[in-house]
Amino acid sequence: MPASEYLRQSALAALGLAAKAGAGPARGAGVILRECAPRAQLCLRGGPGADFEKAVEGVLGVRPPLESGMSARNGDRTLLWLGPDEWLAVLPDERSEEVLSRLRDALAPLHVAVVDVSHSRAVVELSGAHARSVLQKGCHLDLHPSRFRAGSVAQSKFARCHVLLHQTDDAPAYDLYIQRSFARYLWSWLEDAAAEFGVTVEV
Amino acid sequence: MNEQRFRLFAGGRIDRERAVRFDFDGERYTGFAGDTVASALLAHGVHLVGRSFKYHRPRGILSAGAEEPNALLQVGRGAYTLPNQRATQVELYAGLSATSQNRWPSLRFDAGAVSSLLSPLFPAGFYYKTFMWPPSFWLRHYEPLIRRAAGLGRSPTEPDPDRYEKMHVHCDVLVVGAGAAGLAAALSAGRTGARVMLADEQSEPGGWLLGSKTAIDDAPAVEWIASALEDLRSMPEVRVLPRTTVTGYYDHNYLVALERVGDHLPPGTGGARPRQRLWKIRARQVVLATGAHERPLVFRNNDRPGIMLAGAARQYVNRYAVRPGESAVVVTNNDSAYPAAIDLSDCGMQVHIVDVRSRPPEAMAAAARQRSIEIFAGHALVAAHGHARVREVTLASLDAARTGYTGTPRRLSCDLVAMSGGLNPAVHLFSQSRGRIVYSPERGCFVPGESVQAERSAGAANGTFPLAYCLSEGREAGKAAAAAAGFRKRGGLRSPKVEGEREQPAEAWWISPPSRAGAPLNKHFVDFQNDVSAADIALAAREGYRSVEHVKRYTTTGMGTDQGKTSNTNAIAIISQTLGVDPSQVGVTTFRPPYTPLTFGALAGRDIGELADPVRTTPMHDWHLAHGAAFEDVGQWKRPWYYPAAGESMQDAVDRECLAARNAIGILDATTLGKIDIQGADAAEFLDRIYTNGFRKLAPGRCRYGLMCGEDGMVFDDGVTARLADRHFLMSTTTGGAARVLAWLEEWSQTEWPELEVYFNSVTEQYAVASISGPFARALLEELATGIDLGPEALPFMSWGEGRVAGIPARIVRVSFTGESSFEINVPSDYGLYLWTTLMRAGARYGITPFGTEAMHVLRAEKGFIIAGQDTDGTVTPDDLGLGRMVSRHKDFIGKRSLARPDCRRADRKQLVGLLTEDPQTVLPEGAQIVDRVLPRPPMKMIGHVTSSYFSANLGRSIALALLRGGRERHGERVVLPLPKRRVAATVTAPVFYDEQGERLRA
Questions:
Q1: Is A2 in Cβ contact with B273 (below 8 Å)?
Q2: Which of B16-20, B278-282, B365-369, B541-545 has the weakest average pLDDT?
Q3: How many CB atoms lie within 10 A of CB B410?
Q4: Which chain B residue lies closest to A188 (C-alpha atoms)?
Q5: What values do phi and psi take at A91, rounded to 5?
Q6: Who wins on pLDDT, B553 or A125?
Q7: What is the pLDDT of residue B753?
Q8: What are the chain B neighbours of A116 within 8 Å (beta carbons)?
Q9: Which phi and psi (to 5°) does residue B731 adopt?
Q10: A14 touches chain B (CB under 8 A)
Q11: Which of A107, B553, B697, B816 could be a cystine partner for B822, CB 3.0 to 4.6 Å?
Q12: What is the pLDDT of residues B291-334, one digit of tens each?
């Protein structure tokens, strides 16, 4: 059966977000919520060390950032620092298989683990003038621009869920990587928390 | 009543253009925007607002702030109502409805006041002494009686219609209190560029300046406040939060504040904004500029309505433009009452000053005399007279020893007594921060000692009372706090100019002596809210209580909702006088959060209803919903429990599902099981150490069931682990154990065996899992699968393979929890729903039937498969479960040593057995005890208990699993289980009821 015939359904598919889009205030919404299209997410464990970093860079064109809580980007490939020996590679969905096998080959001689976790997390983009206030309702990290800015990454408890937070723009805009089974709960939570600022759903 | 007879014609911070109607105890009144309920009532001459807690004495408005012990009102109607609201802090809004508390049938005539006549019968410790005996009376008689008598106000019974929010925030400098010192601190910290939060509990910043006539920089203080606020607003990193009370100070400079966003608005008019917002603040530095509370003086009947704190009287005159009476007696031991007396006189009241000091401050006294205020120096108030309002006071000249009176007592008629016993720094937050409070004999009050956290106190909160010093201390504190947080700016702020003040020292003066030696002090009130008198405290001291903590609990002083803000220092002083020691030796009780009470709504925030706790759903959730599944909560997961068809009971549905799984195809959503990806050169070695059984020899492509024990040798989780490649495993765990097992692996890897090269990654969320079981499962899968041979030789029981199912890349694992030939199909989660619907569609002709967790439990119990956490409880070893063969003798593993202990080898340990009831229709309740010998009533010797029990449709009878002492040797024996009103007999069997040889499983 060809791949096009089976149906891929995101964690939030059942919420009918397309129908909700545009239902909020036409302009001036303080918060914009958007479910992001599927993206390849590969968990890289290994290193740190020159061999590991070089091998990863050779495949992705991005050197793993070594500074805690930071990310590095090259074109459509991003590496998020998750721990001293842990990164999340994020890239376009269609390149998932190819990159996965190339990474496995390139890293084979080293003590590493490369795990495809593309379906593990839903990604929701939160932006708008009050995006940070919404986050601060559920997250005790310091997200002030002097501490957390475009490129910053953190994993924390957010609204009782484990969330990977990546600030993508100083505007601000954030990508929230949410464990799939929690995604519907967290979406409801976000809509509720954003309500006082006016919220628009985009698709 | 619209006439505001006591409203001044000019002045105040009220808006005379905006009249606000409200009602109190059913009576209608009008106030102005900017009023509190207290100031609006006083504008009508209403002083009597409540009845006291124990004696139901009439009580009036004592203060103008958070320290109010008396004027506690029920505010708002229906679902919006809140009890114990301090009238001195509740802002007036249109339509506000307030009622007095603790009175019946009315405030003026209160039946409970009879207890006041009996007050000699209700001394300190009355409850402890009276309600002791007999003990059996506690629950039925005493407790309900006390509960009815206790408690002020009532909580709403309907669901709360308001929204409450929470917000986390970080700042460099948190300034608590926006009075003179706090504003100065925020200004000097803010100009460095530091992130500053300024929280103030009042509707507008300014603190006591709002109620004074002091000039700053030759202009009214309010102008200085306005310009300070303007400066602060121009600083982008400064946030000013009015109506925000910092209620708690916790470890690591973590503070909690309550912002009353919409409490001052009519109910339901706040729009999308919350009613209250709880701020959770992490501050690098804290400046406590919380000000001070004035102390009452302790004399006979000092609790009569019309008796208030001098500073509060001044607030009412200057801030609210209310004349609190016609004729005032100002009584004091310090200078601060003089400006109050002058302000009262200037607004048209007749004023007398009673100063316990023999030498009043000269300049101030002169200013007072200019206004024809008569001063009685060296006098004290002996008593107040009047009932629902003070009418008269008795004063007398103090004798040389200051323990009695000389000369003839005088009487002055008055309708207001303004008293000042000096100031108590508001050290509550400092104390909560674990700082020790010390007694300052010079200032006659307790002040902050050394800081424990990154915090400093400034101004009145630090025992620094003159305005000029408050401003400079605040400014320095703000600057130092910002510097400590890493923010500096050159150049100083100009000091605002303030009229010079030189004060005479206050006299340490705690209590007026009784009118004659030995007369009782039982109407000399110390704690107004809890009706504790000086006599009660003296009694506690006489009865041997020395520790202030004990006196507090025995007398209940300081235990009201006000936490003794006005009473604690007086109580401590009276204890020290009674014991003849210095107040510093008595010490202080601990201040606890919250500073003022919080609502439950604020604490709950949005963690209510559907948002109360995360709900985890699988990719197939909507199918389950659409097909009428009843759900079971497993951890945070929603799992289908059973799928009732129209008209089916739960048992009907479970029976049908169980039969289908053994005779056709059953399909289970197994997505929730924990899945851990394990990789590394030492992965096999690591697993060998974690599991009781061996994994090193497991071939790639094969799976093995494993048992994990804790260090104590007790089973804590189980599951099947597949070897994906030489250095790559996939472990499955129980649904509830997933997070715990991953943490367990990481703990051993990181702390004990860091030399082993192995990585763990959770892939629980990555895969959706549909498990199909039954005689036609293979046939169905063969229709849908490509690229994989599903035959029993190519893919035998306990092996796995990869292929495509319905076109989706899938891993198929041949494990079975039902005992039937089973295929567990793992696909990436986004394809889970499609996989499921495809299986359902294609399986229809085989009679495919979805089954839930209940049928799963029954099916596995028929096979005697355990569930960790149900058939085990942390006291069960592998051998107890009959799985001793899974405990390797050839390698080490966690728990091995413990399993060698004699206790783990006892023959009479509780062991897993099956139970078949004599009546096959009887289903034993889980938890039922097996007893040695049935007696007419407990206790009976318990020798085992039922862990799992079901009706098995496949067997046409009930089955149960149980843990039974020496159970393995008792197969065939008859045991008895006593239940309420009946007893059930059962036969002990092996814990397998179906397909003992496992032929179906392997098919």
A1: no
A2: B541-545
A3: 15
A4: B611
A5: -150, 170
A6: A125
A7: 97
A8: 766
A9: -100, 140
A10: yes
A11: B816
A12: 999 999 999 999 999 999 999 999 999 999 999 999 999 999 99
A window 49-88, beta carbon within 8 A of B: none
Q: Is A192 on the interface with B (CB under 8 A)?
A: yes
Which of A6, A140, A181 is facing B807, going by the closest CB pair? A6
pLDDT of residue B112: 67
CB burial of B135-168 (b: ≥16 within 10 Å; e: otherwise) equals eeeeeeebeeeeeeeeebbeebeeeeebbbbbbb
What fold characterizes domain B907-997? Elongation Factor Tu (Ef-tu); domain 3 (2.40.30)
The second-level CATH assignment, the architecture, of B164-292+425-484 is 3-Layer(bba) Sandwich (3.50)
From A38's Cα to the closest Cα of chain B, the distance in A is: 9
This complex has an ipTM of 0.96
SS3 B154: coil
- A6 is a domain residue: no
Indicate the CATH number of B1-159 among 3.30.2350.10, 3.50.50.60, 3.10.20.440, 3.90.1150.10: 3.10.20.440
* Closest chain B C-alpha to A131 CA, distance in angstroms: 13
Show the CA angle centred on residue A166, arms to residues A160 and A170, nearest 5°: 120
Q: Is the pLDDT of residue B139 over 80?
A: no
Q: What's this model's pTM, rounded to 2 decimal places?
A: 0.92
Report pLDDT digits (tens) over B24-41: 999 999 999 999 999 999
Contact B765 A139 (CB under 8 A): no
Please tell me the distance from the alpha carbon of residue B729 to that of residue B647, in angstroms, as a whole number. Answer: 46
Collapsing DSSP to helix, strand or coil, B512 comes out as coil
List, in sequence order, every residue forming a beta bridge with B448; answer none if it has no partner: B437
Annotation: CATH topology of B519-581: Arc Repressor Mutant, subunit A (1.10.10)
Residue B102: predicted pLDDT = 73
Q: What is the mean pLDDT of chain B?
A: 93
Judged by CB atoms closer than 8 Å, whether chains meet at B165 and A45 is answered as no
CB within 8 Å: B831 and A7: yes
Nearest residue in chain B measured CA to CA from A136: B168
Contacts of B170 in chain A (CB under 8 A): 142, 144, 147
CA–CA min distance B183, chain A (Å): 24
Question: B455, B428, B487: which is closest to B254 by C-alpha?
Answer: B455
A188 with B610: Cβ contact below 8 A: yes
